[in-house]
C-alpha cells in the first residue's frame, strides 16, 4: 500500500512539475511594436515598425499579416511584412474607439500561428450637426409620431452613441414622452427642438384638427401557415368615406397559441402592415389612428414541414470551436456542387461538401 501511495505521489509530482515547466516556457517567437501604443484622431495617420523576433531578438525570417480591429476602423499599408518578419506600416484611423493594430504570422498549420497586437486609442470627434429624417410638418390631433434624427460629428461620421433630448415649445398643444414620441392634444403651431451635447436643431410643425372618422382593415386571407407573410391593408377614412392618406396608422396584435402550456403566441407586424406568426393559434391584428381603430382576426395553422435526416458523411476540425452552419448549392460554373460554412468568433471555415463521404475545408 505504501508503495502504491509513493508511486502516485511521484506521478502527480512529475505532472505538476511538467506543467510548471510548460508555464515558464517562453514562446519561440514574439511581436514587437514601436511605438507600443498610439493616440490618433479620426483621419490622422501614423507610422509603426513591427518585428517578429525569435528568442534571441533576431528577426524570425517569417512574414506576417497586419490588420486593424474592429474591421474597417483602421487602415494599414502595407498589410503584409517582408520575408524577414519586418514591416514599417502606415496606419490611418477611420472610426473612434479603443482599437487594435493586430498581427498574425503566416504558417501552414493553424496551431503554429503567432498573434500580436498594440492599442490604438481614437477619441470621439466633436459633434457637428443634427438632421431630421423625412420629418412630417403637418400632424393631426390625437396622433402620436416619432421624429427620428441622425447626428453627425466633424469627421462626418454618423453617431449612434449620443443621448438626444426632444422638447416642445408648447406642451399644452403637444409633448414628448421619455422615448421621443410626440403626442398631439390640440391644433396650433409648434416648434420642435432636438439637442445633443452643445448642438441643436429645430423644426416648425402645424397641428391640425383630425378629420379621421373611421378605420378600415382588410386582408386577402383568413387563414395562413406559420412563417407565411400576409399583408394587412388599413385606411383612415373621413365622414364621407374618403381616405386620409397622410394620417399615421399604428399596427399591433394580440394572440392565443394553440397549446395551453409553453411559450406565448409569437408573431411580428411591421409598420406597413405585413404580418407573420411564429406559433400557430388565433391572432387579432389592430390598426389605430386618432382614437379610432379596426381589427381583424385570422387563424394560423402549423406549417408541418419535416423530413428525416440521414448522416452520409462528416468532416472534422478539432482545433476550432464552431456553432454556426450554412449550406448552399453552387451556381454558375459551380452548379452541381455543394458548399458549406462553419463559423464562430474564433474562425470561419469553408467546406466543399459535394462528396459527403470526403468533405474538405
Describe this structure in words.
This protein is mainly beta and 361 residues long. The protein folds into 4 domains: 29-122, Immunoglobulins (Immunoglobulin-like), CATH 2.60.40.10; 127-208, Immunoglobulin-like, CATH 2.60.40; 214-301, Immunoglobulin-like (Sandwich), CATH 2.60.40.1080; 308-361, no CATH class. The protein is 6% helix and 48% strand. The strands form 8 sheets. It has a 4-stranded antiparallel beta sheet with strand order 1-3-6-5, with no helix packed on it. A hairpin with a 2-residue loop joins strand 28 and strand 29. The longest helix has 23 residues, at 2-24. The protein is flat, with a radius of gyration of 31 Å. Mean pLDDT is 87; it is low at 1-16.
How is the secondary structure organized here?
Layout: H1 2-24, E1 29-34, E2 37-39, E3 45-54, E4 64-69, E5 74-77, E6 86-93, E7 97-105, E8 115-122, E9 127-132, E10 138-140, E11 144-146, E12 149-153, E13 158-159, E14 165-168, E15 174-176, E16 181-184, E17 188-196, E18 199-208, E19 214-219, E20 223-225, E21 229-237, E22 250-257, E23 267-269, E24 274-277, E25 281-289, E26 292-301, E27 324-329, E28 338-344, E29 347-352
Parallel strand pairs: 2-8, 10-18, 20-26
Antiparallel strand pairs: 1-3, 3-6, 4-7, 5-6, 7-8, 9-12, 11-16, 12-13, 14-17, 15-16, 17-18, 19-21, 21-24, 22-25, 23-24, 25-26, 27-28, 28-29
